[in-house]
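retry 2 of 3: previous attempt timed out while embedding MV4. Reduced batch size to 1 and resubmitted. Inputs unchanged:
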Amino acid sequence: MGMFHKILIANRGEIALRVQRACRELGIPTVAVHSTADTDAMHVRLADESVCIGPPSARDSYLNTAAILSAAAVTGADAIHPGYGFLSENARFAEMVEAHGLTFIGPSAAHIRMMGDKISAKAAMASLGVPLVPGSDGEVTDLDEARAVGDRIGYPVLVKAAAGGGGRGMKVAHAADEMEDAWTVARTEARTAFGNDSVYIEKYLDRPRHIELQVMADAYGNVVHFGERDCSLQRRHQKLLEEAGSPALTAVQRDELGAVVTAGLRKLGFRNAGTLEFLYQDGQFAFIEMNTRLQVEHPVTEMVCDVDLVREQIRVAAGQELGYTQADVRFRGHAIECRVTAEDPVTFMPTPGRVDVFHAPGGLGVRVDSALYAGYVVPPYYDSMVAKLIVHAPTRPEAIARMRRALGEFAIQGIKTTLPLHRRILEAPEFVAGDYTIHWLERFVGSA
Ligand code: MV4
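retry 2 succeeded.
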């Protein structure tokens, strides 16, 4: 099977650089697209070619499918990598790309659509033997049915939007007398936010960890997993720090979950990269959602498995075989990622502006994925993440020591960043002990 001749990268910032790097190593020229606010951005400078696709607003540029497809046509690109965010989980865009005779580097439009609806995602996983949170059997269409589900599974319960994710359209009912309110609020929010008021109900888990499994599949039924990431350290559904592996899991638990998931995805005919999200509490996994994109936190998996996930995405999209099996995947050491954002480390207000000083840390086991440079002006229009600092070491305590050392070296001046908050987290006894749930960080930053 051949390889792509030119790849258009429909994204910006560090992930556009990340995809360019994989392309360069594969010998594939790249096309950058950019808004008028990103003319001086690093992803434009480092690409082989670039095309301006619109004004600053993402809606008119990075989400402008017609402009992106035109850019691919005029430059002769034969594949599009969407990165994360923007159009990465847009099934219609994936279809449009293929309808134009190009390859979408990601899962099929059908699988993106299936997983985009949390109800159909859960139904698919249930049929494949993947454990779920107890809850309604699919959509709940009226309040009486919602009450019946609540009585059957026991309170507290969560009413969740089928089109949800990122915490929107989700409401807790602690007892039967709160169901009517939760029902109304969740449905209204779902309709407003997603234009789809379909909801389902789950038992509310009160102190879970958020553990996700990275998978990769080729077009020939070969499916492997690259282990788990613990993403419990988040604030308002924004992840701040991720680890691979999870401090809460054993290698046996990882193997068992991985075996069920990979067998299931093989049956489903899934291909390319995906991530299954689980809640983990009291020794039990419960599937909640699947992401059909490369994720922000993929580097911790890359470090532990010594794999280039973007290279694998490109290879399998081009029709190449994985060329290895699960037995070839090894988990070596521990990796931690800190997401550095242009935000006030106390108030979390965005802090766009000019970066006067940028000095990235280095040394053994240190990786910095960032599109910043001294003199760059962080625009106010996009996501505030400006750098990912990733460390890898033989053990978790050594990874913590390495991250503290690297955070000490990292200098970003001119704008406020969350670097000081990361330095505090790395000293917190609960973090060092690996003893945290999805709720720990909210309380920690509240007590700043
Ligand atoms: C849950 C839950 C507790 N029980 N489902 C939040 C976003 C969405 N992706 C799923 N979410 C949750 N679903 C049940 N049955 C708690 C959360 C949740 C959460 C999950 C993962 C990471 C951070 C979170 C923060 C708050 C709530």
